[in-house]
Amino acid sequence: MNFLRSGGICLLLIGLLPGMALGLNAAVVDKVPRASAASPGAEGGKPPPVVDAQRMSDLVEELADEEYEGRLPGTAGDSRSRDVIVKEFQAIGLQAAGSDGYLQRFYTTISQPDGESHGNPANPLLGKRMATSNVIGIIPGNDPALAREVIIVSAHRDHLGRTPGGVHYPGANDDLSGLAATLELARMFAQNKGSNKRTLMFVAYGAEEQGEMGSMHHVAHPLPGFPNKNIVLMISIDMIGRGFERWSSYSQAQRDRYAETWFKQVYNGVNDDDDEYSHEYPPENEGSFSYDAGPFGKIGISNRVFGKAEGIPDYHKTTDTWEKVEFAPAAVFTRTVFDFLRKVDQDPRPHARP
């Protein structure tokens, strides 16, 4: 299948092209302020990193297609989507960091995520034990004192499979929107590889819809060389494709305030900060969670979830399709997340636990 089957390429380069109007699935950015040479991420005269909204759209359109069967863990569609993500990691230049190349393999039992109101309640594979994986790549840190510290940037790659009648759950917003953002963030940091102080770990978690089994497996089985005590921040980007319309009109100053506020909240000791677009998980002894950040928060790791589920149409429905995702504001939001992560990475203070 043609990965760029949507036709001509029209790029929205967040931070570089001011005044450009771009309609992507009914989402329009009327004005994107120009980033200055001193903007976060601008290194040695290089242009600042950019977010490509059309590339985000292409990825979501591809993986939401029926060819991938709703990406239920252990199915052929799950394997095909995994292979696409591995190729993306390779193209970006991420180093393989799984226990088997880019993969961290595990088993999960197919469950019903949200009761009968959501989540493919008649899934023909309910109760089946399936093999799946997390996909993991890194950009190694470069500061001798801070390189051992790890920042995890993640989304989940799985969804709900097919109904008994063969209709697939596309999971375009949930969570291909977050996956597309994660890949853009990896590209942005890779553009200035060598300037990051800490090790940046990019993860596409499997089996999130099965009770966060991929992230729970990661916490329970830390990767060699990356113990949990060295993880200073874990972010989960989950459902940023709907409900973010206002980001198309936010000024640079407004976006900067969000990035600065999130940065200040990473180590403020509160652990349950939130706003309309994000929240943290406190270290509570819960058995299950709603996002992949939960298992990390449970053991006291600073974390933040970026995304909105409450009140968002088509959640866990077969109607969560590519055409409904609003890529232009999602791209603006992704650039702001980059600015936040850049602040965390460049913080000169050590934060790894003894």
Question: How does this model look, in words?
Answer:
There is one protein chain. The termini are far apart. Strands 3, 4, 5, 6, 7, 8, 9, 10 and 11 form a nine-stranded mixed beta sheet that branches. The chain has a two-stranded antiparallel ribbon with strand order 1-2. It has helices at 53-63, 76-92, 172-191, 213-220, 252-266, 294-298, 327-346; strands at 22-24, 27-29, 95-96, 103-109, 129-139, 150-156, 199-205, 231-237, 274-275, 278-279, 303-306. By secondary structure, it is α/β, with parallel strands linked by helices. A hairpin with a 2-residue loop joins β9 (274-275) and β10. It has seven helices and eleven strands. α1 (53-63) packs across α7 (327-346).
The quaternary structure here is single chain
Rg (CA only): 19 Å
Helical segment count: 7
SS elements, strand count: 11
- Helix content class: 25-40%
Note the overall shape.
globular
What's the overall average pLDDT, rounded? 87
Uncertain ranges:
1-23, 25-39
Portion of residues in beta strands equals: 15-25%
Distance between the termini: 49 Å
State the order of secondary-structure elements, H for helix, E for strand: EEHHEEEEHEHEHEEHEH
Structural class: alpha/beta
Instruction: Tell me about the largest β-sheet.
Output: 9 strands, mixed
Summary of the model, kept short:
By secondary structure, this protein is α/β, with parallel strands linked by helices. Helices cover 27% and strands 16% of the residues.
